[in-house]
Every structure is written in C-alpha cells, then in structure tokens.
Amino acid sequence: MTPDQLNDALDAMAAAAGNDPDLLPGLITVESGHWVNVLSAVRATCAALNDGLRHRDIVIHVGSRQETKVLTRTEAGERGAPYRDLAPRS
User: Fold this and answer.
1) N or C: more exposed end of the chain, with fewer CB within 10 A?
2) With contact defined as beta carbons under 8 Å apart, do 26 and 72 qualify?
3) pTM summary value
C-alpha cells in the first residue's frame, strides 16, 4: 500500500460509512518493514504520547506482526480510541 492508496482507502471507508460512525476508519495497522520502506512518507503526527501516532487523525499501529490495512471503528475496538473525525488530505 502506498501513501496515496492509504488515503484513498481512508476516503472510501469514510464515504461508505454514511451516517454509521462504527463504520468510519478506526485504526491503520502497518507491518514494520512496510512502514520503514513505504508508509513513513505519510505525514504522521504524535501530539502527545497518550494520543499515539496518527495520520489524518486516525491512530496508526506499527509492528512486525501487523498486516498493513485500515480497520473500521468496530473492527478496531478500543485499539483506535480515542476516535476522531477523518482529517482532510493535506
């Protein structure tokens, strides 16, 4: 997944969610090698340690056992909390 594909996936998920907040983007998971080699190009931010690493206000979890994908809030459960609205592309 490229940064553009990630943004497209986030936008598509948000559009498909309609009025159901449980179907909005809730968590981005990224395999660590993929993060280092490709997705670190996204402008991820971390305003505070308890806020976590975020892209477009969606939490990012990076790990060697992660699969690179976007989860809905329902799929993410508490792992993506606190949830925020998807920020526009910069």
Assistant:
1) C
2) yes
3) 0.94
